[in-house]
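Support request, please re-run this one:
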Amino acid sequence: MNKLTICLMLCIPLLAGCWDQLSFRDLQVVTLIGIEGEKGDVTIHFSFPSHTDDQVEYLTAKAKGYSFADAKNEINVRTSEVIDISQLEVLLISEETAGDNLYDSLDNLYRTPRNRLTSNVALVQGDMEAFMTQNNTKGIGSNVPDFITHLLKTSDEYSLSVNHDLQEVCTLLFAEDKDLALPVLKIGEESGHPELAGTALFKGKSATGTMLTTSESKILAIMEQNTGKFLRGTYEVEVEGEEFFMTIEYVNGNKNWDIKGDQVNMSYDIEVEIEEFPHGAVLEKDRIQEIEKQLSEHITADMENLLEILQETGSDAIGLGYEVRAFHQDLWKKGDWNETFSELDIKADANITIKRTGIMN
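Re-run finished. Output below.
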């Protein structure tokens, strides 16, 4: 064994460690970030935990800059420890900021390998500071990031809105065949804490300013075949000349999109379960068929209403562009897809089948 080999073996223990290792003692771990402002005048809000006397208190700080990175660097002169966003849980963006090119506000987050790309993303209405401080957290504790994370998870599970992480947001911002949609939060007037307001529609990299209600968001989930664990809706039906409100739960569904030239026929076969029907049992076949017909008419009308909203805003949130790009190149190459989508003649039809009627039957 020569001297060079011996020297190399003796140096091996000195190579242990990670090149990008950082000690948490030197960092202030940020779990919630809020972005507002416009290009050239950006304000970033940071929320981070502070441990004192066996308690965790969430502190906030904010800084202004020309961009996200500039404001992030500026905040380090106002905190005792270096801000670290690699453990970010929730990213909030004001509606006004999202109305410009959203990627401009997110670019820095994608350029650092240590950053977490599974962070939840949502838009907010109103004052950003109301979502960062503890003044509006009545009944939810001091851990605002955790509360918002679970709020977004619940809205996704119950198909009240969509929930995308940072990675998915980037993919959809650059996608040419489908547009992004993000949940919108507000501060509840009665509760005083963050609540779901609806779903924001995007066209390209910018928010359109149009927001779907939670009911419209459920129809969006059905039409793009991306429902959560639960999806429930209530409709008025007429039985024996009397009006009743019936609550149904989505069980399963299949779609068939027939594309011929500029005409698109969207057909959906949907199976549902009756969750509430004050009239009583619905065993009779004729009664079930009549209720199915009424439900089909209601949901078809909801689908056509959603399509009208999407086409008016030029937002293909249902992903029709996926199928057009794959199988209808003549239509895809007609021009900008958002413009083409707005001009298509799209019809929707829902065929509802009551699969289960509950234990009463």
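Residues 24-212 form one domain. Residues 285-313 form the longest helix (29 residues).
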